[in-house]
From TrEMBL:
InterPro entries, sorted: DUF2750
Protein name (database record): DUF2750 domain-containing protein
Entry-linked Pfam families: DUF2750 (PF11042)
Phylogenetic placement of the source organism: Bacteria, Pseudomonadati, Bacteroidota, Sphingobacteriia, Sphingobacteriales
Amino acid sequence: MSQDTATIDNKYQLFVERAAATKMVWGLMGKGGWANTHAGDDEEVTLIPFWSDRALAKACARDDWKSFTPTSIPLGEFLETWCTGMAEEGNVAGVNLDTHMHGTETEAYAIALDVLEQIKSINSTVSLKNYPGVDELIADLNQITDQEEE
């Protein structure tokens, strides 16, 4: 049974708010690397799942991912390295997927922009290595968006 759009939207918003507040996201790490799967019905596109809380990630460490461990990713690294790299490689993010793999599948730059806007809206900051501030990273991500639309 699929989840309704409101539930999926709420899980996405929870991810954005928690990531901005806690300055971290969660993934599942195994001996061979990070958990990933195919996006929707497209076997050409890799989906890498991320969660806002350790418990949500741990709940998905089953079946093919039963040997995987919830692992935190600092938010700055997630935004600068993961999201930009995924955007360049054409991978998508799975956000707060549940044990049935229901959740939002989105372009990596889109989730980064949403988290960065949330950080700005709560007058917070995030530690970035390659950018002097949030606005500069937003500008770079917007360039990726513009290039994809051309």
